[in-house]
User: Fold these one by one.
Assistant:
Number 1:
Amino acid sequence: MRHSLEGLITHDDITEIAETEKLILQDDIRISILKAMHSIDVQACPGSGKTTLIATKLILLAKKWNYPHQGICVLSHTNVAKDEIIDRLQRSKSKVAQRLLSYPHFIGTIQEFVHRFLALPYIRSSGVSDITVDNDTYAKQAVKLLELAQFSWFKATLSGLGNTEKQEAFFRGSFRYISQNGEEINIDKKSKAWKSDNNFQKAISDLNRLKNYLDKRGVFLFRDMYIQADKACTNNIELAKVIRTRFPFILIDEMQDTQKFQDELLCKIFPFNQNSIIQRFGDPDQSIFNSIGTEEPNQSFNGKLRDQMDYIIHKSHRFDGALSEKINRLSFNEIPLETELTETSLLDRAQAHISGNKFTHTIILFNDDTCEKVIEYFAQIISNQFADKYKKDKKFTVKVVGAVGAEITPDKDQFRLGHYWPDFDKAKSKVNFKESCFIDAVRHCQQNSSIDLADNYKFLLTCILKIMRMSNITDDDGRNFTNSTLREYLIKKDSWARFRKGLFYLLTETEATQLIRWVQACSILSSLIGLLDISAETREYMAFNASSKPMRTEQAPTLASSKDNTISHVDGFHIELSTIHAVKGETHDATLVVETKNHTFDMQAMLPYLTGELPSIAHPNSNLKDKPNSRKSNKVFMRQFYVAMSRPRHLLCLALHADRISDEQTQLLRESGWQVETI
């Protein structure tokens, strides 16, 4: 099959599809990739049009494919990447592209491929027909099994982990995997009762019996399916050969995100030394999902340096030369990132600037007192540089991103997204607010009405339930009211509509906190919930307090928190806060990358690369080659910042603490084209 595909795609085919699909396909690298009918690895830089290139190649193949029972297998790591490829094929002007969406071809995620062609048929062959593959379902059923007598000892030892939620988390991570010692079960956290070797071995034995019990009933973790797939190949040595015959051409997208266990299975089915054509596309410089949990990243692709790749697409149509020069300093593989924008495209892009000029990429320096003013400062830069029609466009995208977005733990040495904007974790901020009285709660909700009315409604309802507990008002069974039982109680009294109307009045009308209105509102509320004999504690909690003030805020009047971690600006645009991992694959108009800390201040560690003081970690002359710990952490930071800094098409800003940058570094950055400003 391999030899019969050689020369399948010609230069004339490429010229024709470029005209049909309105594509520009003139560079030698892309043309060579489209023509290639042998196994290749392709590193594609951010904004290189990788998905368009893949879809174009698939359409070219579809036009020439004459094998009724053999197909093209297209694999991706995520549903997003898969859907994007399918969408490109469906929008193609070439009707033959639709053929790839059905037999004998396959387009799906690696997980879907493993299910359909390996794991599920193997499980069914053992007599199990009703199969569920879902981590949450698996965890809940596993916890229920602990009630069986045969797992009583295991239940007792597992209780050392904590409540049901923590036990379910344990089971979600209890997948089978293959190690040098054979098949093992992953354990993320050991119970306190497993300290002795004997107890641990017995627990492993019990866990294995429990998993076998679920296996026979067709309940599996997603990760377990790879073991089932491996068993299918091991027990039927002809299976892999049959699959290779079915799929002589394999194309893998987003290869950098493929985990080691996935890569090993794929290599077992489609080895490079066989007749199958395997073409892998990705960018090791953007492999930020490496080592998720206990998993290891693939090495067959991500371990390759620049010179080991068959093809490198280093030209991007996302950003101009000034921005690409700044980003490529963080390329681990030292890819010479260049712009592919034409002079005409650059002139069109200049219209986004308020004066038709080039955007000023800025490094914002702050101190302990001005950290919470960073986003306001960034917003002002956007307001000053972007033309009004772009700022007000619904597609205008602005994001603030950082590596660490977890909740802030008080009294811990941390630096996270929430330090720049306290409302980043809105649920957490509401939990931390403790009202001193009922009117405090109402004023708090009114002031934060732009965040989420539903959340404020729930918070105020919680305060009303607190009032009922203070006055010992219980339901017919003598239990404290809950949200649902209070609703049922008021519906029976035909008071629910009036109660909700009163609640929304308190949430939205500032007059409600004036003395006369407040007394009237509390009187109506007391009547609705049956508050007759008001205790001294309740009376004090519901009393009018003229000195009660809204919660102090440091937010500038030009900015306001909205829902879903979004900030509204008076100019009409929104700024979304997110982690670096969450924005991978996105394109923004403007991006602010902020410094965070996970053991080490990440941006401080990257400064020597941004300034040019240090070459890439992969460079043979790098002075980190004898410092493995620094090398490892900096490699992670480098790839994270490469992803973050390559999101915007127009404006890039960075923010870090003024104490973590020297005067010499500031000067070097200015010489590299950065504007450096201090709040």
Note: Confidence is low (pLDDT under 50) at residues 426-432, 548-556, 619-632.
Number 2:
Amino acid sequence: MPTPSEPPGRQSSSRRLEGEFDYVIVGAGTAGCVLANRLSEDPNVSVLLLEAGGQDDYHWIHIPVGYLYCIGNPRTDWLYKTVAEAGLNGRTLSYPRGRVLGGSSSINGMIYMRGQREDYDAWARATGDASWSWDSVLPVFRKSENYHGGASEYHGAGGEWRVEKQRLKWKILETFAQAAQEQGIAATDDFNRGDNSGVGYFDVNQKRGVRWNASKAFLGPAMKRPNLTIITGALTERVIFEGRRCVGVEYRGDVDYVARARAEVILSAGAVNSPQLLELSGVGDAQRLKALGIGVVQDLRGVGENLQDHLQLRMAYRVSGVRTLNTASAHWWGKVKIGLQYALFQSGPMSMSPSQLGAFAKSDPDDPALTRPDLEYHVQPLSLDRFGEPLHRFNAFTASVCNLRPTSRGSIHIVSADPATAPAIAPNYLSTDHDRRVAANALRLTRRIAASPALARYKPEEILPGVAFQTEAQLVEAAGNVGTTIFHPVGTCRMGRADDSDAVVDSRLRVRGVDGLRVVDASVMPFITSGNTNSPTLMIAERAAAMVLADRREGAHARVDSSPPLPVI
């Protein structure tokens, strides 16, 4: 048998053998939970699921407003930061990623959003695979869905992924919706029919006012299966190759372990950690890896490139004559009332997702080339200087708006051969003329909504970024001042056609040029979806599980990819 390639540091022979499984899945986030469930449905298939974080038994995971205590908490968050961003006027951002069973579905905003029909049709064109088109993926979304309105042409019932209406409303949000309609943004009761135009309340992944994460939905039903092994506190350090075939992983727990895979290793570690693991394992840009002393297994220059994210521009308005969460929770008796409301009825502010009201609009309605919404609003009945700080002591609302399809592209790359060292995250926000123009137009649209007759009774006063920013250049500067991630990184291991030298995986999510290795998570998206990215990631995992099982039935563990092998350095 060929000798496995060895990284600098501890050798595989000094590690304890965890065992041999048909499939080893790295990462128990949204995608990993789905894969573990679907693959282990076959009692003849053995599955190992590795998660660097811990159990999802922290109470703040399950109380919707608890995201405030999960983001920035080492118990549940990787605590990543970006590099200093020129487009954000030199600022560095926190970059939350879930580090717990359920992954980011345990700390995110719980918003159920698929994106637009055109997003998936663009994936089909980019991959040359019609099975990624909207008409093909819609039944996959419906398969896992348990929609509050029951089954229909667009929605599913009885699946694991619970989708409910929110359990509260705010007068200021109702009025913002009226103001948006006065600016030509029509009301909608469903953002998930392939055209998410309009304004309305978001549907959420909750069950009776409690967060419904991927761990509850998919791991819970599978945990008692004897063919599924779940290990938490397991930091995967690299995947192991014998020649060009991936045969297992090395991970660090209480001691150093190795786990072998008879069929495949599947990386579901997310848009940050999947490219990190590929590079640590010798799959990536050869020059970059050699400079770090890592032996090259496969030269794939696209690994870690093509990072896309939604940059939200937070605009806050002080209001009078209407109550918001700022003052509702300002005193101890208000906090007690809120707590009792949740304890008794699982409703009220503690059942809030981070954003309740949404709107999708065009940044330039007069542009004939703009055929669909390119902006998404997340509107909240509160305001604060920055995330993690106290709410303001006066009534206010925040309207955060993001460019749905940015043309800026960033990267995520390792800076060390040490698996415990965080990679360099460089989103490269606002680096194109297009993105700067959309940002300026987005701020202008928000101001028009705030100046609409419906809101006039509450005398909105812009406090962030401030009315001093008026010209195009000033608005771009303001965007750099207030812009922050809305936690949707994708694209760093993107799929593509056989002749696309920058693609990392093929349309069946197999890593190019090697055998026995797939990537299944948001990193494979060639283009970011026009909305929140959690449920699209779940759909990707559903499709991938079907692909893996189909390959198994056909005895297709050997590579059948038509793309030419890339050079081994």
Note: DSSP finds 15 helices and 24 strands in the chain.
Number 3:
Amino acid sequence: MNSTSVLVVGGGLVGVSASLFLAWRGVPTVLVERHSGSSPHPRAIGYTPRTLELYRAAGLGSRIPQTPPGFRLRRVRTESLAGKWFEESPWTPETPQASTLEYSPCTGAAIAQDRLEPLLRDQAGALGADIRLDTELVRFEQDAEGVTAWLRERTGREYTVRAAYLVAADGHRSPVREALGIGRKGRGHMRTVRSVLFRAPLEEYLREGVTQFQIDQPGLSAFLTTYGDGRWVLIFSDDEERDEGALRAKVSQAIGRSDLEVEFITTGRWELSALIAERFSSGRVFLAGDAAHTLPPNRGGYGANTGIEDAHNLAWKVSAVLSGASAPRLLDTYDAERRPIAWLRHQQIFARTDYKAEAAGTAQDARIIDDAAMEFGQLYRSAAVLGAGEELPPALRPEQWAGQPGTRAPHAWVSRGGERLSTLDLFQRAWVLLAEDGRWFPAVAQAAGQRGIEVEGLHIGADVRPFEPEAFRKAFGLGTGGAALIRPDGYVAWRSTGLPADPLRALTHALGHVASSD
């Protein structure tokens, strides 16, 4: 019997991201994917700055081309590409309070899913993940010590793998979720739609910076967008099967011209739905991505990007438990942190214009939360956070936070050893204590030793020098004697705004609560 620490089922964006983040932390990982590679009909194309922050930390920063600063995804309603263009519709209404602050060293990316996945597979493999394509999960059983999985290769060969944990990233129909008997709630199935992927020389219609087109004309209601590499997808609002001649006529109708060469690549049929699993874990099995939450495509990137951060959140916790640094209870915080985020994004989708007409009461007059808050300012509440009170809102823009526990540690530029870095470059590998007062650092070594947890102490003003010291203190909410404890995923776990009477006792208590889940 083969054995590994983690078995990841599903090799799409979320599954391969899970294997990447686990391998980056040194966790032996096997990924199985029943297909030979990426889908010929790519789905996601937009990746948020937060997603790029995670990939950047795992060594992919230079390999994924990022969008230019200030890039904004634009959509217009049109008769056709060559016909009349009507109004432009924003994803989130503009607000007079919109900030021009720099929130991240990353800007996001616009790359087709089938172009990104091979990069992730290569990096995961280079870090030690065992990627097995053409291999499907037949069934699995779990017990108190682990999970046994029966696998079948395309050749027909069957074998078993024993793993400590299983991550199910096997899509919205998730056989693993079904086998566990986990139900789903939410807006539900909205409709089944069809699409056609094609190649055509349409670059002239992208000069205005618009990349999404809502086609609205008699006889055709459809959505047209580009993958930025010569490929376009036309998504119909119905489930009608069309032969090649009918498809060609509809594509010409959407373009508004019939004199261009159009090459058909493939077609698709898929369900538009919004459903959240009633729980994200069962024993030693965890759901991630569409297996945990199916959300309709949207300009906020709430589908793939939400799943990628699921994988990142889970990876450090699994690593900590497998290493013995944390108790298995830490894994309970995965559901506690990620399921509310899925529900918040579900609500926000139906609060906005794109899907408001199809909300069916789902949004319940919810206040629209702006993009920066949804991207960088979501709040975690769990046993892995100490001090995230119920009075705090679910999300705020970074400048509206001040380093509160449960929030993403803010980006700021610092100098370390003469090198210009983002604060984000200091995090995501181990626990980090940031403090300006040197009296914290003897406590760091002692508390870490007592708890058996790796904690790096960073002395502000000595080890790292902020380019703007006052802005830095304000962003982290620290007085000159304060300290912030940052988790391995870059979220603030605990904070002391000033120097307590007994720093060792305070830090030891905090670490026991948030790192060991005592």
Note: The first helix runs from residue 13 to 24.
Number 4:
Amino acid sequence: MILTKNPYKFLTIVSLSCVSIMANGQDKKQGSITNEDIVIDKERKIELPQANRIFEKIPTIQDANKGKGLRYEFTERKLPIQMPQFSPVVVMPGDGISKENTKLGNYNNVIKAGFGNYAHTFLEGHVGIQPNEDVYHGIYFKHDGNRLGPVGASNSGRSQNLIKVHSKTITNTFKFDGAIGWERQSTHFYGKVPNPYDIVADSIAQHWNKFHYIGSISNAIRGSKIDYTATSGLSFLYTKYDAREWVWDSKINAVFPITNGLTAHFDGNMVISEYTDEVADRRQLFKLKPTFQYKNDFLNISAGINIANDKDKNLNLNDTYVFPTAKIDVQPIENIHVFGGIDGDVYMNNFMNILQEMPWLAAKSQLKDTRKTAEFFAGAKGLLENGFGFEAKVSYGQYRNFYVFNNSGADSTRFNINFSNDTTKVKVTNFSGQLNYQYENFRSLLKVDYYNYAGLGNLDQAWHRPSFTSTWNNTLTFKEKLIVSSDIYFITGLKGKNLITNKEQNLSSIFDLNLKFTYLITDRFNVFVSANNILGKEYQRYLYYPQQGINFLAGLSYSF
């Protein structure tokens, strides 16, 4: 296999390209490229979007007259499971600069502060400078914490703090982006039966720190027939309990035209990590994905192979896999698309990603990479009259090393990550849909997902994975002075098991209603009030971990 013969040569090329970005980098999102459409910014001038004075993202819905630009809203998922964010989790803004044009003033910098119950404090901001039209530097920071939690007062407090410096530079030939930052998150192991106990909060505290750097270089030559982006990032994380991990992740994405409608795509990815929790484990994943794509006004078809080499020192693993990949998109009538395809992949389950998904992870967790041996999918999408748009998709996938979380048998306040056996093919069927609507100052977005799990083997159940999720987001603006938004989340089908009592428990369905009001006092100042979990349900997303009841946050935002 090409990558495994000399993987470091590939990594060196990408890394050297990014070394010069240390002082001139930008945001990771700018280096993102999909296999279907490569879009490289060849404009010499850096156009800064206006600062969104409402940090929470509002889903945008494309104009029905732009049918040819219609793109899939479905995001590539690590597994066909993606939990919606709900209180007390605060939605992360777009790194201080939102692409949303809310017509709220021509300002690129924002500072926002607020206070709420549960001793909630919030501070967020972005400040940037643009020395000339080809260079931009910025700093983004955030503090979001509750000193008190849903049970046991300070025994269940939580916080997030982060700071990131980012930069962008465009020359006649290249665009450089990069960022360097630090993040700290803290929580408590407060899940206990029957009720929280009298104990010093620090003795059950958990926190982790993460330092990271990301840099990219991409083509900026106008009219170039070849486009590319090379990205390289290095992260280091350590926890209170001395677990630590470093991850080096490098990617290259390129497109080469062959004929007027035919192009060749090349995607490469190398991930090298070392996870240490008493014992060090060196893990590596190398991937190459060459594909060909033909595209005209009515048809978009691509086909290729995905080659992955997976290495794990402690598991004595060194295997190479080849997966076919193909997609077809047909437009039978204007603004209506029908699509289908097949795919396969290998996903590295890093300790960093797992810990962000499950903050109450037990010590000495063993990690494995998940293989999607095959996934078949089909669906339709379209823009209808009167501002409506829709997407519907059904997929059937088979996974090896499929993982779930469940309470530890040694301590129910901690969770283990449990993998299916490598000989087991876990079958996941997913029905997903999206309906959006936009009319003047009103936007609405409804998403639903249904999951069915079969062939779980040694897992018995898909512990703490839902069978059905839905989110409904709405935003209404009154004369560009008052913005009212609502978020409704519904999750059901969650199950957990107490391994000490050997009893399985069905968790109650989650119904979470959130409202937010923002009033623009001037073109620079606005006040906001948000209320989360208005119904006051102290539901459990994970067994023995009740969430906050009704909670609110009020504050002031200043744009400059």
Note: The domain at 2-248+257-559 is CATH 2.40.170.20 (Maltoporin; Chain A).
